[in-house]
């Protein structure tokens, strides 16, 4: 199994959301996320899943984390409910953790076995939309863990006010085909 975390955070304060919203719109960042995750298996918290248009992302499998055993997904063929994060330990797939904050924190700061092998760390330098209502949601504990336990293995990419770096867990063997896929998705801007 390979676990990859993908996020876009705001520089300095590590905010990834205000209420249910991502407080910026950078279309190249959405496109990069799509290239990274198309035809892959995603893990999303229930709130993030609910925020996807029509509760789906086409051409991806989605594992929805929720404590609610009766939770109903929008697409029973491609979306799956997971109520115990430890269930991922038995799987052999490649997973892309796609938020939100509670899910990034559960993987990054929890059980060692579930720590992401790879993090695609995107950092947005522009202004945050402060007119949005709701609490500011940040992933500071994840960034502390990132600086302590991960090393950068890519160049630093700059595009549309977003800096992207690929980080791997120190001392970890990483599947090179996954790294290849990630770098291709970042570098191929179509
Ligand atoms: N900038 C980015 O890259 C990015 C990416 C994705 C999301 N976001 C933002 O992140 C924010 C949402 O984050 P959030 O932390 O509030 O919500 P979230 O992580 O998307 O979802 C939280 C829910 O996930 C379930 N959950 C979390 N950990 C679990 C575990 N260990 N076991 C079982 N279920 C678990 C619980 O669902 P139940 O309550 O149903 O039990 C919990 O209420 C939004 O602002 C969104 O826009 C930003």
Polypeptide structure, described:
There is one protein chain. The radius of gyration is 16 Å and the shape is globular. It is of the alpha/beta class and 190 residues long. Helix 1 packs antiparallel against helix 5 (176-187) and helix 3 (101-109) packs parallel to helix 4. The chain contains five helices and eleven strands; from the N terminus they run E-E-H-E-H-E-E-E-H-E-E-H-E-E-E-H. Strand 3, helix 2 (46-51) and strand 4 (61-65) form a beta-alpha-beta unit. The protein starts with a strand and ends with a helix. It has one domain (2-187): Dihydrofolate Reductase, subunit A (3-Layer(aba) Sandwich). Strands 1, 3, 4, 5, 6, 7, 9, 10 and 11 form a nine-stranded mixed sheet that branches. Strands 2-8 form a two-stranded antiparallel sheet. The structure holds NADP nicotinamide-adenine-dinucleotide phosphate. NADP nicotinamide-adenine-dinucleotide phosphate binds next to strand 1, strand 2, helix 2 and helix 3.
Mean pLDDT comes to 97
> What is the share of helical residues?
25-40%
Number of domains: 1
- What's the order of the H and E elements? EEHEHEEEHEEHEEEH
CA radius of gyration is 16 Å
CATH topology: Dihydrofolate Reductase, subunit A
* Gross geometry: globular
CATH class: Alpha Beta
Bound molecules: NADP nicotinamide-adenine-dinucleotide phosphate
Poorly predicted spans:
none
């Amino acid at each position: 199994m390979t676990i990859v975390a993908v996020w876009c955070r705001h520089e300095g304060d590590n905010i990834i959301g205000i209420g249910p919203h991502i407080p910026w719109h950078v279309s190249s960042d959405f496109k990069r996320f799509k290239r990274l995750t198309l035809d892959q298996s995603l893990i999303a918290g229930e709130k993030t899943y609910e925020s996807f248009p029509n509760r789906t992302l086409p051409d991806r499998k989605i594992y929805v984390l929720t404590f609610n055993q009766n939770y109903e997904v929008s697409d029973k063929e491609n979306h799956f409910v997971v109520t115990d994060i430890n269930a991922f330990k038995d799987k052999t797939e490649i997973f892309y953790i796609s938020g939100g904050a509670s899910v990034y924190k559960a993987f990054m700061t929890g059980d060692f076995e579930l720590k992401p092998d790879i993090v695609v760390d995107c950092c947005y330098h522009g202004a945050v939309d402060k007119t949005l209502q709701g609490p500011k949601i940040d992933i500071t504990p994840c960034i502390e863990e990132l600086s302590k336990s991960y090393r950068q293995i890519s160049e630093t990419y700059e595009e549309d006010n977003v800096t992207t770096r690929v980080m791997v867990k120190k001392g970890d063997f990483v599947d090179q085909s996954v790294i290849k896929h990630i770098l291709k998705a970042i570098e191929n801007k179509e």
